[in-house]
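fwd from M.: "can u put these together and see what the complex looks like"

so here's what she sent:
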Amino acid sequence: MHSRTRTAWLFLTPMIVLMLIVAVWPLARSIWFSFTDTNINDISAGQWVGLENYFGEYGLFFNPNDEEGFWSGDWGISIRNTFGFAVVSVVLETLTGLGVALLLNQDFKGRALVRTAVLVPWAIPTIVSAKMWGWMLNDQFGVINTLLLNAGLISSKIAWTAEPSYALWTVVLVDVWKTTPFMALLVLAALQTVPKDCYEAARVDGVHPLRVFWRITLPLIRQPLMVAIVFRLLDSLRVFDLIYVLTSNGSSTISMSGFVRREMVEYGNMGFGSAASTSLFLIIMLTAVIFLRLTRVKLAEDTP
Amino acid sequence: MKFSFASWLITLSVWLGMSAPAQAVEVTITCGPGGSDVEFCLKHAQAWAAKTGNTVRNFSPPGGFGEKIALYRQLFAAKSSDVDVLIVDGTWPGILKDHLTDLKPYSKGWENQHFPAMVANNTVNGRLLAMPWFTDSGLLYYRKDLLAQYGEAVPTTWAELTRMAQKIQTAERNKGRHDFHGFVFQGKAYEALTCFTLELVGGHGGGTIMDADGNITINNPQAAKALDLAASWIGTISPIGVLNYEEEEARGVFQNANALFMRNWPYAWALMEKDDSPVKGKVGIAKLPGQPSTAALGGWQLAVSKYSQHPEEAVDLVMYMTSAKVQKARAIGNSLNPTLPELYKDKDVIAANAFMANLSDVFANSVARPATLTGLKYPQVSQSVFSAAHEVLSKRATGEEAVKRLEQRLKKIRRKHW
């Protein structure tokens, strides 16, 4: 037994060392930076400032300088934007993904082809699809405005990505377009595990299809569906690239990740930016824990 | 055996001795990313390489202003020697001062031939950190055919511009040109909006955001009025999309004959006059409206990284690229304004860019952004300025609220001193 443990350690060591280098060290360093006033100009010159980046006059939270309240400061706005974006886009993606998956679960001619074609938006790198949509949504020369104008649906060209009231929802739309295939794929995988005899029994009893969906399909795919939603929720809370490429990056559409980037990369405030990114990490973790508790999703089988 | 070893040694030493003085090195320069940049930058860098026997490698930096400086700062934080010669904006010497080579020992007074304001801007604590390469100022592009057709002269105040733009836009749209706009500019929340804010506020007599001592002066009624006027353009004489326009988006609208006025930098001139341009021969350039007319000083310099492994060759390349010969070629081919006053009297330069001679006082008297003053904090200062302007343009704040808030923000950024 003893030698078996030793062998196990032998095999594990390279992995542990690698994890220490690529995951633990950068994370620990970033958290350490968040307690200093480091500037990118000279990383070694940072001074320990304790919790100053988090609370108080120069901090993220409980800052007395936020005369108009926490939620109208840039950090507050970015939290609001991120959650607004995440909730709306995940709900829409789940619905469209479910719909597409139910369609693809049916037998029809050319199903294999359609299944592959549906994946295309997910296969395009986000930065490319964001640029592509940016051009299609261009207010003067974009194809979307031209189509809508020709169809008589709008009377004047709409500045999709520029007008603050539209910009965030345009981003949601593009995100839904992009991630519906991901949702559809996961839900489809779940649908295929539902035993056929349940449906046959329902058909014999003459149950209404909608009732079949609510009573059989949905309960049986609930667990995998919830896992897919958790994945998407965590992913969309980190949203950065779509907003960065599509919108004008004003503070009206900034996300938490965008805020972190602006502080760290643009202003060079490694210390304050690290505090924001650590807070971002904690906020996402808290959200995930709450969500999992509320929906009672088990990510691992319970040990008996 | 002994003999052959000795002969090998001799051969080696002779070879080393001969090649050492002319040791060819590879120097990396940041040309690009635009097509014309590569053409008019890399071509000259390669001419230098051919002349000196070295090689040049192009490192295409990101196109965006903020992305460029962010990448530089990351490279410098890592003390990377990947890039030797960097193209730097006039607002960056203060930010990058710890990472650039002092060019003074190499320049031997050659910098005194350039515009003194630019050299002063590039000199931090007595160290010359960059050589001026080309200068930029905000300019007003106008459709001279349309102004003549409607009997108007070039506007000298922003209010006049507003009136003309409204009148001609209405008339053109009544003729069925629904996509015609009065005025396009850079309204996206980024650096050029800081420049435009400076021009607008200055053009209304509202000062230069802060004075020479770093006191914040932006909170005044004239500045508020200037921003309110600009907000009134959005959706009337300017498409709402300008809120997301950079230089090229504005040029796209103007060059497709869909706008009467445009605020842009000199580079657009050469493109307007290309043979495939729909507005070739119909465009005029003037100084920006305003009392007093205010133009933001742009302009780019070449600098050498402190972490370069071949500083001598890199400096030599910088001196070649900023020489009168190369600046003249770039002025003619790419309408990039030289930084050498003598070139503004050059016959060939004037023949290609008549505006350079007419507007030489604009280039000489442009207003610098408060960059050298605010040093490392400039990115935050600029961000606050363009965010405030963008809030007014997108009608989320009035001019009065915005300048008040901007003053508070700048004070917060300043803390005790700049």
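replying to her w this: The two ends of chain A are 24 Å apart (CA to CA).
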